[in-house]
Write a structure and sequence with these properties.
By secondary structure, the protein is mainly beta. Helices cover about 0% and strands about 60% of the residues.
Length: about 70
């Protein structure tokens, strides 16, 4: 089986959140880069430079992103 590598910069995902009770919607944009490293028996992938350009965000002590919407 061939080993796959990915090195991609500036990937952008837009998530649309809808509240059906209040009929409000909001979008959250996430930008990130992907790197891969070939190991002996596997390929590891890493997500780096994770940004929420339109929202305030922070990483807590457990490594979880908290994003203010």
């Amino acid at each position: 089986m061939p080993r796959t590598t990915i090195n991609a910069n500036n990937i952008e995902i837009k998530i649309l959140l809808n509240n059906q009770t209040t009929m409000e919607s909001d979008a959250v944009v996430i930008k990130y880069n992907v790197i891969s490293t070939k190991e002996e028996c596997y390929t590891s992938f890493g997500f780096i430079n994770i940004l929420f350009p339109n929202n305030t965000s922070q990483i807590d002590e457990k490594g979880v992103f908290k994003v203010k919407i």
